[in-house]
Specification:
Helix content: 25-40%
Strand content: 25-35%
CATH class: Alpha Beta
Structural class: alpha/beta
Distance between the termini: 21 Å
Number of helices: 7
CATH architecture: 3-Layer(aba) Sandwich
Shape: globular
Mean pLDDT: 93
Number of domains: 1
Oligomer: single chain
Bound molecules: adenosine-5'-triphosphate, magnesium ion
Largest sheet: 6 strands, mixed
């Protein structure tokens, strides 16, 4: 499903060169749940953004469903991203001027808009326990509630792959367990593939396979 081959990304700041992702290779089979743990600054967010087509690697390839995503042109890549995968970002990514409901529906507005999307958005909001906050704006929600809206939003386009960066970072244990149950359900029913970056050993432990990232290198945990 996803094949990462020899990916490398270097950043240069103030003349100092750091290899943030250092010749990383691994594969994810369709329907796998894989977690990545690692210290702050080890390159996890950068790696996810290379895999998800948001940041261009210096070298290497990301092959998803047989296609090298970094060989596509911009239009091809954004269409592919919109169809195939969703991000749950580490930091708040909601549009402040849209309500919770509008934030969840927004990604679907770029595809073929269908009436059933409205129903599905409500269903997803219910699933994350926020059916009663549909009309609230992000500034009227707690950090954990905003996080759950972003999680609901990730599923609206029925993606095949979810790339999640600390998806339960600001949630209590009980809510974390509910989110994990949602992920597992989507995995079982729709064969959604998950790559989860997390500091939570609870969450990591529930993945089918665990990877560790350290100074740009990825190994089995
Ligand atoms: N756009 C950028 N420009 C320059 N350096 C960057 C950039 N993005 C990340 N870095 C550097 O790359 C390294 C890895 O950052 P990254 O965000 O991938 O780490 P992380 O493993 O996700 O950390 P955390 O657990 O704190 O979220 C850090 O040293 C960071 O300073
Ligand atoms: Mg990060």
């Amino acid at each position: 499903m996803i094949e990462i081959k020899d990916l490398t990304k270097t950043y240069t700041v103030g003349g100092q060169v750091s290899k943030v992702v250092d010749h990383v290779s691994f594969k994810l089979a369709k329907g796998e749940i894989v977690s990545i743990i690692g210290h702050s600054g080890s390159g996890k967010t950068t790696l996810l953004s290379l895999i998800g087509g948001l940041t261009k690697p210096d070298s290497g390839s990301v092959i998803i469903g047989g296609k090298d995503i970094w060989a596509m042109d911009d239009a091809g890549l954004s269409g592919f991203r919109n169809r195939m995968l969703s991000f749950i970002f580490q930091f708040s990514s909601l549009i402040p001027t849209l309500t919770a409901f509008e934030n969840v529906v927004l990604p679907a507005a770029f595809g073929d808009y269908k009436e059933e999307i409205t129903g599905y958005a409500k269903e997803l909001l219910d699933t994350v326990g926020l059916g009663d906050k549909m009309n609230s704006f992000p500034s009227q929600l707690s950090g954990g509630q905003q996080r759950r809206i972003a999680i609901a939003r990730a599923f609206i386009n029925r993606p095949e792959i979810i790339l999640a960066d600390e998806p339960t970072g600001d949630l209590d244990e009980e809510t974390e367990a509910e989110i994990m149950a949602l992920f597992k359900n989507m995995n079982r029913e729709r064969e959604v593939t998950f790559l989860l970056v997390t500091h939570s050993s609870e969450l990591a432990g529930q993945a089918g396979r665990q990877l560790r990232m350290s100074s740009g290198l990825v190994s089995a945990a």
